[in-house]
Batch of 2 targets.
Target 1
Amino acid sequence: MHCPTHKCLINSHVSIQKGLFIPPLKKCYNCCSPGKFHCPFCLPVYFKPTKLCRVRLHLSKHLKKAFFVGEYTIHRCGQGCRRRQHYHCLYCSATLIRSRDFNNHLPLCSQAQQLRTQKSSQLQEEMTQRVQTKGRSAPSLTTGEIDFPSYEEESDDSDNITINPDSDEQSSQEACAEPHSSKCDQTVQTNIEKPQDCDEFYFMNLVKLFKKLSPKKKAEVRLKIERVLFEAEFD
């Protein structure tokens, strides 16, 4: 049978002792005159106080009827917990009168206790893994620092603009300035949806002017615009 540990030991009744330990036997002067010895596991109803030698003989009979589970000894209890003498389970609060029933109950209760312990340990491991996973995925920002996007790159592909190289830059700009230039339609492609409100309409009108700038100027203008918006938001 599985050897229980202190964590599994739920019932700490006096009838459950570690090894062959017996509670100290002392003379009683409260209810016995002259002083006699009581059985530590039985009330006077089941065993009358008597001499020390007879008590020891009675305890030897307790050992013959006891159950040995791992390092623990379960004595038959006569402390008045029930109307008849019985056994206390090592793993739960159950008490059984018949030794055969108690012998069948112990292994089943031991397995149930092992399953509860395993489920508890698995739950603790899952909770630990979740906490560790959250700690790894959390952003590591120092107090007072804000994670801003970088504007050091001169070119940005987010506008979805394709510009073909041209040997004559001035002639290309003049061609794009014309209202119906087929060359400008071929060199510049944009994915701009229909504006939803006045703000989008305003900024979409600025796109036409923004596209005429060089990549370096575009980066400078972006930086200035976003700085102005950031200051306006947190001012």
Note: Helices lie at 52-65, 99-137, 169-177, 182-187, 198-210, 215-234.
Target 2
Amino acid sequence: MYKTGVIAGIMTFLFYIVFLLLYLLEVINEYAFVFMLFLLLVILLNLWFVFRQKRKNRIQITVSAFLLFLLFCYELPLLLVALSSPPSHVAYAYQEPNEALKGSGIFSVGVAEFTLKNQNSEQDAKKILAAQGVDVLSVAEVDHKVRYDSKNRQLLKWLHLQKEPLLQMEENAAEYLGKEDDWLRRFIQQPDIAGNSAGLSLALSGLIKEGLLENRLPVAVTGAINEHGEVSYVGLIKEKILIAERSGFLYLIIPSENAEEAAAIQKESSRKIEIIDVSHVDEAVEAIGRLNDGG
């Protein structure tokens, strides 16, 4: 009987995967995807009543219905995404690099983000923002995969399984430094700060404030960190390279996980800014030391 239940669960999950792929490939929309799960759930419940006297069939249907019910609940928030009139495009624009600790020479490189609704093309979205004086670097269409990722992140927040990236960044930086000073709180509270990519710059700024690091050069920095100082991947690296270069920086420190992507971008567009990749705050400290020594 155990084997029967496992097979029923696998078949149900495969059915779910097929329709999830159809949604992600934009063959069907959110409504059709969730409706198909609901329809199969109704069919299984009816079959349970028809075959409730047959133990083997009852077990198969019960396992399938229970699994499908969980999957249906997991995907139901997609309807909220659809009903909220989601944006059609997201534009990424120039944002002035921010020095969290004045006089440190460590500048966090961020990207301004604008969402637009009901635009027919990326070019139309870019024209609208350009007319408003926004220095647009790139525009991306919001497809089903982006919406699905957004739903998953929101669900994790509702279940308190994931913190807001900005709050997580603040917590990680404070834990790495051993305390949270006023300058760190002020930086986090700025209206144009979002995400977690300023973590590395905050850690370096904190070390300078504590007298554990000296820096006399303007250095652009991007990178998320954990409480141990390990540096991890950040998005929009192409836009950040362009912003750093436009702002006149000679050096940009990025996560090692972005190194391959950054190398391809430099090769493609002949960027002259020197990019230094690090996997830990300690490596960034060493790199800054070498730059200040002229090495």
Note: The chain has two domains: 1-84, 98-112+161-293.
